Amino acid sequence: MAFLGAWHDVDHMLIQIDGESRLLLGRLDVNSGAVDTLLTVRKREGVLVSLDGRWAMCECRRLGFSPNAALLFPLDDPNRVLSRAAIILRQRPAAQNANAER
Asked: pTM of the prediction?
């Protein structure tokens, strides 16, 4: 179990549990130790979570979307995709970032 660096509210921190082929994103109740499952994705897809614990983005496959789409959705309602990108978002290498700032 790994803390994702984000809190959903004052009593719940967001955690990730690694399975053999899946990642589980959940909320850990810090008072009771109970875990709610928010979503499960294939391990290779991964999930990014906003620091405020309200939003997530993944390269998840969803019916009706491009298989290369990056999907953004609120964690309180993961079935409501608010935005999508037709390309997979990737970080540029540091050398490119330095040149872009000049």
From this structure: 0.63
Rounded to an integer, what distance in angstroms lies between the CA atom of residue 29 and that of residue 34? 5
Give the position of tokens 């290779």.
44
Quick check: helix, strand or coil at residue 11? coil
Residue 85 pLDDT greater than 50, yes or no: yes
Q: How is residue 91 written in tokens?
A: 């970080």
Domain boundaries, the chain: 2-100
Q: CA 40 to CA 19: how far, in whole Å?
A: 10
The residues near 18 (Cβ < 8 Å, ≥ 6 apart) are 2, 43
Q: Are 71 and 65 in contact (CB under 8 A)?
A: yes
